[in-house]
Amino acid sequence: MLNIPPDAAAAQEKPAEAAKATPMMAQYIEIKAANPDCLLFYRMGDFYELFFEDAETASRALGIVLTKRGKHQGADIPMCGVPIDRADDYLQRLIGLGHRVAVCEQTEDPAEARKRGAKSVVRREVVRLVTPGTITEERLLEPGRANALLALSRVRAGEDAWTFGLAAADISTGAFSVSECGLESLTAEIARIEPSEIVAPDAFDSDAGLRRMLDETRIPCTFTARAGSDVTAERRLMDFYGVRTLDGFGALTRAEIAAAAAAVAYVERTQMRARAPLGLPARLSRGATMEIDAATRANLELTRTTTGAREGSLLACVDMTATPAGGRLLAERIAAPLTDRARILERLDSVKAFLDAPALRADVRASLKSAPDMARALARLSLGRGGPRDLAGLRDGLAACRATARLLAADAAISAQAAPEIAQAQAALAGLDDALEEALTRALAEDLPLNKRDGGFVRAGFLAELDETRALRDESRRVVASLQARYCDLAQTKQIKIKHNNFLGYFIETSQANGERLLQPPFNATFIHRQTMADAMRFSTSELGELEARIASAGERALAMELATFDDLCARAQAHDAQIKAAADALACVDVACALAELAAQRDWTRPIVDDSLAFRIEGGRHPVVEAALRRNGDGFVANDCDLTGEDGGALAVVTGPNMAGKSTYLRQNALIAALAQAGSYVPAARAHIGVVDRLFSRVGAADDLARGRSTFMVEMVETAAILNQAGPRSLVILDEIGRGTATFDGLSIAWAAVERLHEANRSRTLFATHFHELTRLSERLPRLVNLTMRVADWNGEVVFLHEVARGAADRSYGIQVARLAGLPADVVARAQTLLAELEAGDRRKPMAEIVNDLPLFAAAPAPARASTSAPAREDALRAALDALEPDEMTPREALDALYALKRLPREG
Ligand code: ADP
Ligand code: MG
Q1: Is 637 in the pocket of ligand 1 (CB under 6 A)?
Q2: Can you tell me the distance from the alpha carbon of 873 to that of 483, in angstroms, rounded to the nearest whole number?
């Protein structure tokens, strides 16, 4: 969408029209026309200004004042501006809202422009596009979350079929990976990557309904349409990496090459002249990770909850990493559990090594705590956007690498046999060249400015010439100060002050009366009048002028030397780019293993047995998130077993039990245990044996899922269809009350048929929670079907949830008891009980009409009389007294006294 008046773009072609715009406006319009899909930040002095519709959009989004500046074609030009030094804040908010911003800077000195002619404007150019998927600033990024740009491509794979290529690039760290898949897995892949921005050809959206699919994944990301390119994909990749062939890339498919090239093209378009530090694209082969579709991912709340928050997700619950890079790696692992048994065992070995060595773990975690985010610092430096603090980040990061390498090398727990992954990481950390760290340590001062142009970041003593220049600058400043005394003598007054401002530079200020004297001989030979203020006069002297020039040029020379030092250090860091990145990855890997060991130690988790069987046997399993929430309330979680191990196909458990009994929790905890185990983590269970799960499916009946706009029953059926069509013997399927979104008999029939199909055809390991008790009968006919029920106790007609899974079927649904707990009026509860008894006792073939007619009428309970309130009041007193007792804290004598007191209570009440 063009945000400028319709005729403005044409202004270029019609000089007569353009002539009407001021030269600056003409320049603005031209630049805006070249960046129609971005908000244009147009640099003017200390502000970025926005005009026309951009101004309106930004003022609305940022809550800043909309003003006017001049006229264009007779109408006021709306304008708003953001100050340069606060630009990051505003960018962050605009990017957060999904906007793209083109940053347009002045690229020549105003003096140069004046030389070209009185009317010429300063040359300006867009130096960078800031988009959600291509940011690098620390303040714009979330530390523990990757920021991926995803480029999509597609190639024809047959008559009606496409193969999609996916390239995920995170320029804030240099991570770059590619994969491919068919249409049926596209949203699953997108959900795994969780991009901040997707770049795809426009056509894609229209034929593949990409935007709709994105809505389904419920990932808040920006969609950017991409124009076709006249450069071939291969050519673009070769140019970007400066290579002659793509041989070094490994075997990439056509779709992957096209996607990688599209990612590179977009990165180049947004970063302009700066080259983003992307590594070679790593290929993720299909089947290497557990397939988890978008709905399952959302439903299990692996990395974010259904509302999109990280808090409350599995990831947030298990993340004990000490560094942002470790947090990102853990997120990546939880989002994509492995299927390769050997690699899973390797990760588990790493956790075990640190679990068995608590002292080492504590030391390593302590040394990691101080490690800055090296990957992101390096990326900013490579893009020319880094500052002195990024260099310090490398310095401190390298020190942490060295310290960690030393700790690992000294401990027998870390050996190539016991923990190959960590031993490898140790080698990468130890292999770092110390020279860079030393150079950084020697060069950088203690307190560092954010911006390199502020200077002062090179340590005194590092460069003799810099020290001299600084001394000259500082000495001159002292000379200026001593001049003040001399001038006071000369003018025979004590009221002379030397001051400084940007307009006059150094100047002398004195009172009006003194000033009048200085205008007269002999003083006027020294003092040159500059300004007369209301009650003061300002003068300069030739001496001051010279000093001023010396100070300025010394300052400039010092800064130039500092900047040269900066560039030099930057170049040295970039020369070690690959080693630093490898070390940063190694550090993250160590961090994750330590964090998972810490987690296992603190929460008493166990190492799962993972193999290629079809076992699924969990003893004493817990739901980590629900357990943590209960623990906060001081409540305990009831651990439960689950065995879906089958002979020639997985077992299918039908789980019944009243609402609130814990069915959904039980289902999900088993799925989470599988995901955690295959991510390489210990699991919340006493024992776990899992034959590798290749696909994980989880669906919830529509009534539980109100967040969606479409007909919920329709969604439920679409998703159930996907499972029945895709699940296989290696899959783990979790179905939670499927069929409850429709009329009873419809729902029952659908659930019934689905169970039969899962058992007979899909043969997946399956947990099927249902409120259709009729389904439990199927165990008589389906050999691998087991019935499980959530135990409840009936206590004086009140239902008590035990949250305990047992073999068998629920004897009844306790719906009415639960309704009573929920506060349904007593008369409705009583009536429902009568109806239930009638319906259950009645001959099933007796027509409904007869039952309806035979029953006595509903009688509303009389309004509660005042007198009757005393009974509940007494009950409350009794309850309060009971709650106050702490049996564990009491002596037998106290207990007996308490008992007598209780016995007295009702009568007193
Ligand atoms: P259902 O799906 O049967 O309606 P839920 O799984 O939603 O029941 O559980 C309801 C509540 O019961 C949960 O929010 C949790 O507080 C509690 N709960 C569930 N399982 C357990 C358990 N194993 N131990 C303790 N409390 C549990
Ligand atoms: Mg439920």
Answers
A1: yes
A2: 90
Question: Do 784 and 759 touch, CB atoms closer than 8 A?
Answer: yes
Question: Tokens 């007494």 identify what position?
Answer: 874
- Here the tokens at position 437 are 């760290």
Band of residue 830 on the pLDDT scale cut at 50, 70, 90: confident
Cα separation, 905 vs 908, in Å, equals 5
The DSSP code for 804 is: E
Point out the least confidently predicted range of 384-398, 728-742, 873-887.
Answer: 873-887
Cβ atoms within 10 Å, residue 659: 17
Contacts of 664 (CB under 8 A, 6+ apart): 700, 704, 736, 769
Give the strand order in the sheet containing 291-292. 291-292, 695-700, 732-736, 765-769, 652-656, 785-795, 798-807
Per-residue pLDDT tens over the stretch 655-674: 998 888 999 999 999 999 99
Name the burial class of residue 604, with classes exposed (0-12), middle (13-18) and buried (19+) by CB atoms within 10 angstroms of its CB: exposed
Per-residue pLDDT tens digits for 184-195: 888 889 989 999
Predicted local distance difference test score (pLDDT) of residue 871: 52
Q: Does the Cβ of 814 fall within 6 Å of ligand 1?
A: no
Rounded CA separation 285/507 (Å): 71
Ligand 1 atom with the shortest distance to the CA of 736:
2
Choose among 118, 128, 121, 684: nearest CA to 137: 128
Q: Which atom of ligand 1 has the smallest separation from the CA of 659?
A: 4
For residues 128 and 103, is the Cβ–Cβ distance under 8 A?
Answer: yes
Q: Is the pLDDT of residue 624 over 80?
A: yes
Q: How far is the CA of 745 from the centre of ligand 2 (A)?
A: 20
pLDDT score of 206: 67
Q: Is 218 exposed, middle or buried (0-12, 13-18, 19+ CB in 10 A)?
A: middle
pTM: 0.82
Q: For the chain, what is the mean pLDDT? A: 86
User: Helix, strand, or coil here: 615?
Assistant: coil
Does 740 contact ligand 1 (Cβ within 6 A)? no
Residue 494 near residue 518 (C-beta atoms within 8 A): no
Strands 695-700 and 291-292: parallel
Question: Which of 641, 656, 660, 799 gets mutated to test ligand 1 (max ligand atoms within 8 A of its CB)?
Answer: 660
Whole-angstrom Cα distance, residue 746 to residue 702? 14
**How many Cβ atoms sit within 10 Å of the Cβ of residue 383?**
19
DSSP 13-80: T-HHHHHHS-HHHHHHHHHHHH-TTSEEEEEETTEEEEEHHHHHHHHHHHT---EEEEEETTEEEEEE
CB atoms < 10 A from the CB of 686, how many? 15
CA of 336 to the centre of ligand 2 (A): 26
**Which candidate, 349, 354, 176, places its Cα nearest to that of 266?**
176
Calpha distance 597→585 (Å, rounded)? 18
Q: What is the pLDDT of residues 538-575, one digit of tens each?
A: 988 888 888 888 888 888 889 999 999 999 999 999 99
Of the bound ligands, which one is closest to the alpha carbon of residue 818? 1
